[in-house]
Structure formats: structure tokens, C-alpha cells
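Re: S-adenosylmethionine structure - here you go.
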Amino acid sequence: MLRQKIRDLLPPAVRSRVKRAIAGVRGLGNFYERVYEMQAVTLPPDDSIGLGDFDRIGKVELALLLLEGVQPGDRVIDLGCGTGRLAVHLIPYLSSGRYLGIDISRTMLKEAVRRTAGIKSGCAVEWRHQRTSRFELPDASAEAICAFSVFTHMEAEDTYRYFRDSLRVVRPGGKLIFSCLPLSLEASRGIFLQQAELDLAQRWAGVRNVVTTEESMEALASMTGWKVLRWYRGDQPSVTIPGMPAPQALGQSTCVLQRPS
Ligand SMILES: C[S@@+](CC[C@H](N)C(=O)[O-])C[C@H]1O[C@@H](n2cnc3c(N)ncnc32)[C@H](O)[C@@H]1O
């Protein structure tokens, strides 16, 4: 409905461009790519990666990485980088490191590149469109992979595949830091109850929130060889952000995994 309202507000020339883009999107073979592209071409860039304060959420994501010891010289992969919500803060921080933004949606990636284009940083920046769970990257080539609000929208079997290849790409001792929506959060239970009112086809008519449990994510982590280090609950303010008076919470819970040495 929101998509329809936005379409109605568009001038006719823009509307026909959007229509053409949507027709192109329908031809895409990868399910997740299709639903994300559809979202990316129909919603404004700040909203296409989810509602909420774009700037605040990006800062909280960075603060979580810093709590986990990410250093300015590290090689960090931002899986599902979206429209650059984290990148605009992380690229300046990685002053002598490498940032690789990966996304399944070309439109999201394009917007992330545009938003970060003017940033002055010694960071080596790269962007990749990736459709599969196989990273075209050498073994042990990153200190950390982060995936904020990515496995939140995926079935467990797909999350498992990303966990598996992430372990290869991160160096021993390196980390996979991701957020998700465990049922222990009140917000997740609300989302679950909404989704429970829909039938399967409606639930997967677009990008959906897939709720989980800490136990389930931890099981996937151990099945793929990761060690679970800790969780930051999404409803507990655990990070302080310069310029913000009170500690902040992400909303989704964040799990930290480590590749055993
Ligand atoms: C909710 S947005 C979050 C964006 C970003 N991580 C952030 O927190 O601002 C999810 C992003 O993950 C991307 N994505 C979803 N599934 C993906 C996959 N299998 N591979 C790469 N990117 C994916 C989507 O295209 C979208 O840009």
C-alpha cells in the first residue's frame, strides 16, 4: 500500500521510469534479488533498507563494530551494505584499512556508491554485486564481516550458507557480526504475530522480516564452525554515540561470532 501511495505521488515521467524498472526487476532469477530490487526501485533510498533514523542506525552499527575491536587498519566486509547507512560512517573510520560493500541489489549499491563518493579517507573502498552465498574472495582475507539486518530477511537455510562461506573468508580469530530478530524481543514478537495473519505467498510477496531465536542462530553458527562470543540485545542500550545524550540500542539483537584460531 505504501508503495502504491508513493507511486501515485510520482510525476507521470518518473512513474513510467519506475514501471520500466519494475518490469526489469520481474525478470531477475534470484528470489532475494528480485524482492530487494523491487523495494529499491519503489521506495526512497532511506526507506528501502527499512524504516528508522538512517543516521542514528548507521552510527549505532559502527559503535557496535568498535565495541568488537574493529581497528582503522582492518579489512571489513559489509554484507548487505544497502544504501550505505553504515558505509558513510565506517569508511572514514577505516583510515588505513579496506572496506568492501556487498549487496544483492544493484540499485542499493549504486545509491551507496553515490552517498560515499565525496568521503575523504585513506580507506581502500570496493563495491560488489553478489548474488550467491559464495564470496569471490580469498581465504582469510578479512578481519571482520558484518551483516546488519540481512539475515533478518532470509530463511535459515540461506543464512547457514552465508555463515559457511564467511568462515572461510574471515581470518582465524576474526569475526562475523550480524543482527537478527530473536523472539525474545517484544518487537520481534509483534512482527511475528503480524506475519502469522498472512498466508505464505503474502508473507513472501516482498522483503519480509524473518524472526528467529538466539538458540537457532547459535546452532547455525556451531554447525558452520563459528564460536559464539556474545549478544547485544536489541532492546538494551549498549553503545554510546558522540553527540547523543543517552546510550543507544540497535532495535535488532546483534550476535558476535569468532572464527576459532
Ligand atoms: C535491511 S537492508 C540493511 C542494509 C544495511 N546493512 C544497513 O544496516 O543499513 C538489507 C540489505 O541487504 C541486502 N541483501 C539481502 N540479501 C542479500 C544477499 N543474499 N546478499 C547480499 N545482500 C543482500 C539487501 O539488498 C539490502 O540492501
